[in-house]
Amino acid sequence: MSAVEEELLTQQHRNTSLLNATTLLPHPTTVCRHLADATSQQRTELGIELRSVLTQTCVGVTSDMWTDNYKKRAYLTITGNWITEQWIMSSRVLCTEEFNPSLRKTRGQH
């Protein structure tokens, strides 16, 4: 390694070692606010899209239960499915909610 390359590498290390997580990552409140804004915008766009779809065709609804591997929590997801005028299958997640295991009923109970 030449002296110039060594000096550049040393300078680069000095520059990057001055960075820390607080200068690189946004504040958690900022992340939450942006997430809430993005969620609200997506809900609005989904509502507009579904109103348009429902004037042209029917929407099938499917459900799926799944468990996350990290916290072992069960979730129920509802998805809307339809075929566009161009014969393209389209689907959108309508909602996902945590499933409360205490509400489960065993088979045969009414």
From TrEMBL:
It comes from the Eukaryota. This is Transposase.
